[in-house]
């Protein structure tokens, strides 16, 4: 039995939404790098990251150099941000 046209449209919309999320998350990471911030994977955040506030708090507790954190990537992990050292 073939899916109805309505279900096909729903699947297409879901796929498009996933693509948009992937593009936006990669753009956020590149913008952060271009603005003088460095990102690194949190060393103490456990498991998948679904809450930016928890990630940010964990990052700030990890190091006084960290200014915050965000849940990034397709499989979301906690990334911490700090000011990059000048070259």
Automatic annotation (TrEMBL):
Keywords: Disulfide bond, Signal. Transmembrane segments: none annotated. The keyword Amino-acid biosynthesis does not apply. Residues 1-33 form the signal peptide. It holds the Pfam family Gamma-thionin. Residues 37-84 form the Knottins-like domain. This is Knottins-like domain-containing protein. It comes from Urochloa decumbens.
């Amino acid at each position: 039995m073939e899916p109805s046209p309505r279900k096909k449209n729903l699947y297409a919309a879901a796929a498009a939404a996933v693509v948009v999320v992937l593009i936006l998350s990669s753009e956020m990471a590149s913008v952060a790098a271009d603005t003088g911030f460095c990102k690194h994977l949190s060393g103490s955040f456990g498991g998948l990251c679904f809450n930016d506030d928890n990630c940010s708090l964990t990052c700030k507790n990890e190091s006084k150099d960290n200014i915050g954190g965000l849940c990034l990537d397709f499989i979301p992990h906690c990334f911490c941000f700090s000011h990059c050292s000048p070259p």
